[in-house]
Amino acid sequence: MRSIYFVFALVLLTLSATAQDKKDMATEPSTSVLINGQRIHGEVLEIDGKHFVAVEDMAQSLRGAINYGDGQIELTLSKLPSTKASPSQPSVAAPPPSSQPTPMIAPPASSQLPLATTSPIEAGGVTGILTYFVDFHVGSKPDTGTKIWLVKGYIEIPADQDFVGTSTALGTSGNPEQYNAIKYSIADEKGNFELPDIPPGQYTLVMQSAHTKGTLREKRNLFGRGNDHSPRDNSGRVEFLKVLVKSGEIVDASKNFGPTIE
User: Fold this and answer.
1) Core vs surface per residue 80-103: b (16+ CB within 10 A) or e
2) What is the pLDDT of residue 56?
3) How many structural domains does the chain have?
């Protein structure tokens, strides 16, 4: 009978000790991890004096995204606040053990990167009013029918060369396609012309008058007669005007061809 009482008492003592141990474990404070003031929810493991948290818990607590594949773990987090951790709740680093490879965090995909914005290059244009001098009683009239070419770069055809031109090219009789025409137009009944949508750059505006002939000695001399041997201007006086087209700007290339020289 005494043996039964002894065994019963021993069982009671064992149960009491076990309950006390569980109570002590339940009241033991757990370690928490804060990243920029945000608490990481999940279990913190301590191994050899180092603390570890699961990347899944970090992703869920910091409202991030996690992907697996190709032997790596991709963890993408939203921008974290700059709030410092409270002194009463120190942040605990959670590096992986040295025996395990460090998970690689891949950079955001190119589709998530902000796109660099650049100012678009606007086209320019060339416009003008073409006239010719009739006499001192009439004055000047619109040079209706004048042909206009726009050529890339700066060019000029000598006066002793025969000038020829089409809607796509111009040059001399020996080389009729010497220069390609970027733009081509013909002055209307009021002498107006317009060459739109021209990329910025340096050009030469070539104009062949429909009413004046012969070569002037100087462009600023209205009546100065040039060299009589001027095949270039026999079918219509040809003028070469250098123009610089800038982004979004319109160049005024108005011109008076002066009188005809018989």
Assistant:
1) eeeeebeeeeebbebeeeeeeeee
2) 81
3) 2
